[in-house]
Design a protein that fits this description.
Keywords: Membrane, Transmembrane, Transmembrane helix. With about 60 residues, the protein is an all-alpha fold. The chain has one domain. Helix content is about 90%, strand content about 0%. It contains two helices and no strands. It is elongated.
Length: about 60
């Protein structure tokens, strides 16, 4: 039962991360369409930091 709840928790976290980064990619695409490259770079760097932090926290037991 414990392993099932851990699997469900990891699945929910992964689903939220995929949804978040899909929206983040869309926002980056909008920035690039309006030639806002600097803001797109800052946004991408912040998302990369979040991906590393959340990625390591999800993979830890």
């Amino acid at each position: 039962m414990f392993f099932q709840s851990c699997f469900l928790f990891n699945f929910i976290i992964d689903y939220i991360l995929v949804l978040y980064f899909s929206v983040a990619f869309f926002i980056s695409f909008i920035f690039s369409c309006f030639d806002l490259g600097f803001y797109c770079f800052i946004f991408a760097c912040s998302n990369l930091i979040l991906l590393v932090v959340f990625g390591f926290s999800v993979s830890l037991p």
